[in-house]
Amino acid sequence: MTGSRTISSSLGRETIERIATRAGFEVHWEDANKRTHRVKSETLATLLAALGLPCGTADEAKQTLAMLDAEHAAQTLPPLVTAECHRATALPAAACRAGDAYRIELESGGIVEGRLGVPKGESALLAPVAEPGYHMLEIGERRVCLAVAPPRCYTVDDACLAPRASADGKPTRRSNADAPRAASIWGIGAQLYGLRRAGDGGIGDFTALASFARHSAQAGADAVAISPTHAMFSADPRKFSPYAPSSRLFLNVAHIDPSAVLGMQAVEAALDAVATTGTGSPRERWAALEALPLIDWPDALGLRLAVLRALYERFCAHERTAAAPLAREFDTFCSQGGRALEDHARFEAIDAIERASQGVGHWRDWPAALTDPRRPEVEAFAREHRHEVDFHLFLQWLAAKGMTDAQSAARAAGMAIGLVADLAVGCDGAGSHAWSYPDDMLRSVSVGAPPDLFNQAGQAWGLTTFSPRAMRMQGFGAFIDMLRASFAHGGGLRIDHVLGLQRLWLVPEGASAADGAYLRYPMSDLLRLIALESMRHRAIVIGEDLGTVPEGFRERLARHGLLGISVLWFERSEDGGSFKPPAQYSRAALATTTTHDLPTVAGWWSGNDIVWRDRIGQTAPRADGRDPVALANAERAADRHALWRTFQHAGVAAPGVSAPPKDHAPVDEALAFVASTPAPLALYPLEDLLGLPDQPNLPGSIDEHPNWRRRLTAPVDALFDGGVLSDRLLAVSSRRAPVARPRQGPPSKPSRTP
């Protein structure tokens, strides 16, 4: 920050703030306590440079302002214009005139023609278009994409009324008369990596997920929400947080079941072919890793990749040379994946070589000729290392088959929704996504959150994401690619930190998380594109809307059919002294007991989260000298009694009985309470269904807490074989409005591609 402080001092604050405002930054922002803050000039200057808008000197500032003015006044249309069905679309006044003739080539092949209307003093208006899709708009010599969205996303009601297979395998549709007034279904939230099955080698895989989905459906669930499955760094297994991926376009190869495609016999032969390292044979190591209570990511992933590489060599020797059906399927997958898939495989290959030979951990530090995926040197690398690049294509093929099979299993078992994928808010700037889309991503900044009631120092997550300016200039292509990849393998999508659709808190690299600024995003365009892709993929959308929420934000989500999230711990009265009754929960939000970043019911009730935060140094001393841990425990004790009273008033806890002690959490009551809400979808985290005390992730920690490493103690099949899980699933299922449907039969096959 020293350099930016020196540079920006040559300009007045007013000039920098003017440029920042034009670029979409909020110069002033309001914190959770309603206090207004003014962003430092140094911070704005650094962030502007990250957007390609330098203003370090007077000349740079002048040129940047001139460029922004020229873009605003340009007599051209952007590459993509979004619209909504049955609503007139405003076009830039500078680019269009009243009476201009236009022609729309509809995606379906139809033609719409007309002339622009321009009400006095307003932008040019394009007449309403009834058909959603990506159409081609032609005005004079200009041709742009017109993305016409439906009024809302695909919803839970849509999913419950959609055709599904009956017992005889024929598609059926429930009549509106038979359907509940509003769907009221439930699902389970599971950490994919934590699922167990015999032979998994120490990491939860897609085969375990398919089994979990079948069992969940048979218990009455209509959805399984899973942790992110984004592609990580195969050359660096120490990076395993699912919310800090290498790419949001592809899948985590750690979740591949090596036996799913080529068979267990081939896996056993591959284990025998793997070179022995350390103590024990590869088979012994595989079994030992499987028995661990915590995932040993470096060892487990290293051994899995060695097995997969041996399988790949077998595949090349036997399947590809014989042009077998699997080989043809693989070739088709690679062809359909196109440039983006090839780029990812090339990145993985280069990354592995650079880490092994040079110890380089970021693509910016590679040889300059390899830092741009479009350079001829990268093409030459791919030719020279074709076998290695194809290995990473092979891994993505296996991963995609695994995810597809898991969703098919869920739908075949009768789920209305099936898998709900999780879209991380950003990606690691050192990863494949940032390398493959260099013109679309922000550089030298971190996405995060400003100081709030729960994180007084603010947060910097070490992630990057799309530049809103690049989005507009490049027709939202990278964003659409990401949406399609996210919707490809499931019936729903959870968008982490959905607040980023309106604005994101950006922190310059190396700066304090508090020294950031909000950057606005084109929310209307993004919501329309999400709705369009949601309907095309017939998948619901959930937005994680926790934190400092701008006024009116949740209402906008609801209008577009995105569900918010109502978490038990946060649903309080305005004074914070009591908890809301079930009837006051939003009908436009999913209801749940907790999230992966928050305490479980057992952990919250016992104060386990307070113990953990104090243990790893997250308890800040108080200025008044009082013991912060004692105060936190006293506050929790009051909250326990308040929550218990709310349970009693809701009829899920016995009246006239005192709150249970700390070591006897009312898990059943909490689950029943959430089940009693009017939310269209109730989601029960598996940790709460099992009464576990530990949460999957403790924000603000890395190695101090075993984040993203905990495994279930029993295999999936055993979990559902009677016992506490079966009892709790039966109880919560009986409290949700019944949605009659067959539970067996072949899966429906909704289109997954536009």
Automatic annotation (TrEMBL):
Keywords: Carbohydrate metabolism, Glycosyltransferase, Transferase. InterPro entries: GH, Glyco_hydro_77. Its EC number is 2.4.1.25. One of its GO terms (biological process) is carbohydrate metabolic process. It catalyses: Transfers a segment of a (1->4)-alpha-D-glucan to a new position in an acceptor, which may be glucose or a (1->4)-alpha-D-glucan. It comes from the Bacteria. Residues 744-754 have a biased composition (Pro residues). PANTHER family: 4-ALPHA-GLUCANOTRANSFERASE DPE1, CHLOROPLASTIC/AMYLOPLASTIC, 4-ALPHA-GLUCANOTRANSFERASE DPE1, CHLOROPLASTIC_AMYLOPLASTIC. Belongs to the disproportionating enzyme family. This is 4-alpha-glucanotransferase. It comes from Trinickia dinghuensis. The gene is malQ.
